[in-house]
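Dear H.,

Thanks for agreeing to be a second pair of eyes. The structure we're designing against is below in token form, covering all 303 positions.
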């Protein structure tokens, strides 16, 4: 990795150099820093190191003291420091936070700013990299303990209808157990419905035990206080079961056991999950139609 020292100046990197093929402008005042360009395979990001703070920058400006990073590209993502990343649309805000060995995301309804859902992945190892490409936030984690690498895409869906998670795992070992659980929690859940094999919605509820396991299809619709229906989908074959339970009158939890078969070196396993929103009289039909479109969709390109 090449580094360029910066001391109280504005530094320009010219396209086509060995550092990067894109033009960046970094403004740094009153302190010494180092700017580092990483691999040309992902040329849209740079790293800035100052006073123990390490940040990747995706076409951004840096204000005095590194108080905040403000996106300069056309992406809807904004990063605070190198930990929290947010995108905001007219109907929702998604906030993704990286912790040691864990990723947590929160989905808030707009404009009232109600938290609708939260999801979490643990046992990832430390995050080694992240970058923004278009409307995608991409994070890369690697665990030294089990030699597993995890890549997480948070992709904002067309027309800002929701978000798609694309998760992939691979190992450097000859054989490994890549299993992990993706945990969702819906707050202020007034109602919950499941989709049957005929593509029709079952009557609301989860039965007398307030819990159910779904296999085909793995689809739930949760009605929340913001008068919006939220559909949670798993792409067919990407998970063995969807475990759904109501823990109290307001909360619904969904557990997705992912990557439950052993993983060999050189093999990449992938799972796709969508959280979409719909409102109005035809909301439930909209959710059913969007699930069918999800099932018919091509495997998205990732890098």
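And this is the sequence the design step returned. I haven't edited it by hand at all.
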């Amino acid at each position: 990795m090449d580094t360029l020292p910066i001391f109280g100046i504005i530094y320009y990197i010219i396209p086509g150099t060995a550092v990067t093929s894109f033009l960046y402008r970094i403004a740094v005042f009153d302190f010494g820093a180092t700017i580092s360009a990483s691999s040309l395979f992902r040329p849209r990001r740079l790293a800035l190191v100052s006073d123990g703070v390490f940040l990747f920058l995706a076409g951004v400006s840096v204000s005095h003291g590194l108080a905040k990073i403000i996106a300069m590209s056309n992406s809807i993502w904004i990063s605070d420091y190198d930990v929290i990343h947010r995108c905001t649309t007219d109907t929702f805000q998604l906030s993704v936070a990286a912790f040691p060995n864990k990723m947590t995301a929160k989905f808030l309804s707009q404009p009232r700013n109600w938290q609708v859902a939260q999801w979490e992945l643990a046992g990832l190892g430390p995050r080694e990299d992240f970058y923004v490409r278009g409307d995608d936030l991409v994070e890369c984690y690697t665990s030294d303990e089990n030699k597993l690498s995890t890549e997480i895409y948070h992709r904002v869906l067309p027309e800002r209808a929701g978000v798609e998670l694309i998760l992939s795992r691979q190992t450097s070992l000859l054989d490994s157990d890549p299993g992990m659980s993706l945990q969702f929690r819906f707050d202020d859940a007034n109602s919950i419905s499941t989709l049957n094999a005929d593509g029709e919605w079952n009557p609301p509820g989860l039965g007398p035990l307030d819990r159910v396991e779904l296999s085909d299809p793995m689809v739930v619709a949760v009605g929340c206080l913001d008068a919006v229906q939220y559909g949670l989908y798993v792409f067919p074959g990407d998970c063995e079961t969807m475990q759904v339970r109501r823990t109290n009158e307001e909360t619904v939890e969904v557990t997705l056991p992912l990557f439950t078969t052993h993983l060999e070196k050189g093999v990449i396993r992938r799972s796709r999950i969508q959280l979409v929103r719909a409102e109005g009289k035809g909301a439930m039909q909209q959710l059913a139609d969007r699930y069918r479109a999800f099932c018919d969709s091509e495997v998205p390109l990732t890098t």
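Two observations from my side: Residues 1-72 have pLDDT under 50 and may be disordered. DSSP finds one helix and 27 strands in the chain.

Warmly,
E.
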